[in-house]
Amino acid sequence: MTTQPAKAEQYRALGLSTFAFTLCFAVWTIFSIIGIRISEELGLSDTELGLLMATPILTGSVSRLFLGIWTDRYGGRRVFGILMLTTAACVYLLTFATTYAMMLAGALGVGLAGGAFIVGVAYTAAWFEPARQGTALGIFGAGNVGSAVTNFGAPFLLVAFGWEKTAQIYATILAIMGVLFLFMAKTDPLSEQRRNAEQTSFAEQMAPLRELRVWRFALYYFFVFGAFVALALWLPHFLMGVYGLDIKTAGMIAALYTIPASLFRVLGGWLADQYGARKVMYWTFFASMGCTFLLSYPPTRYVIHGMEGDISFTLTMSLPMFVMLTFTLGFFMSLGKAAVYKHIPVYYPEHVGAVGGVVGMVGGIGGFILPLAFGVLNDITGIWQSCFMLMFIIVLAALAWMHYAIRKAERVEWAAQSEQTDLPELAASHLFYPHNRPGAGGASKQRPSR
Question: Considering the entire predicted model, what is its pTM?
Fold first, then answer.
């Protein structure tokens, strides 16, 4: 970035992109509410409902790869505005669907809203210097609160107007925001560099994806974001099935999970700037393991054969305890989401869109696979808590891989008798990513805030 933008311009860009992303995320998760009514009308199984909820997440995930590249080439202002207008049209057309197959086809179009994330990441990162990117991206990522907007508001719209009118209201609001963004947002400061780099081949843009590190970041995001989206979609159905709540109450309680899992992403970005992404990821994974372990325990009746007869008791998760644990889980997942994206502008400053698109794509694929898996596990095992059992396995695998990679990097640091950075492998990044060799420019010259 040749000239540092004025703070007013930075805040303007951040505010517009965050608000736009909030609306996109609200649209992206709309099936968490209207899907329940559609399921009742069509008589769907849990597996079919899980697929319907997950289908928009698939489109939003896969589209992130291409949208990230297009944002690197053409700029976030145009891509973001056009994306919102296209998605609004798809949401409106969904209301004409009458069969399950048509619903799935319409859900693919609705899912384009999820691609807004990587567009906003690349657009927002371009406005801020590296030392403030973690905080800025944390604020932008708080747009995940759009799922809480849906959980709070959509049930009331659904009861009052039906699912078709609810979708049409969402489409209208998103279309208005798309037009406003095209006219109010400014071209980002990297536009000149982008024009000069337009001749870069697709293979060169995708070169960083050969690095194993990118795919490890993607696994982190598969849990902290993919599982977040999956659970945000699944919780209303879970609460209605386990605790017998009505849809409005289930939606409001589900929002108690999605709000901290969104808003505290701002805190996660600040913590990643101040203390390092490595520490934040450890906090996230250890806390998430504890929460998912407790949440995965189904109601169980024990019988102890005592000296004077059988002694029986039952262990079950009360609703207040469930709310507390999901709130805690959402809080730490929000920290992790910000910490993952703190890495990308530092390691790959010239490929934020491409690398961030892949990481976001894999994370979003988690949001597609997991709701479907939750439904399949329900139908196979008959245990509602099986969704948390699966989440526990995923977070355990992510923690194990991260810890192994960090220990491997630290052996290089110990051999040099120095600890140079708080980000995994950055001190030895030349062993993994040749462009970052000392003296070659790039991330090895940067020392992130600790």
Answer: 0.72
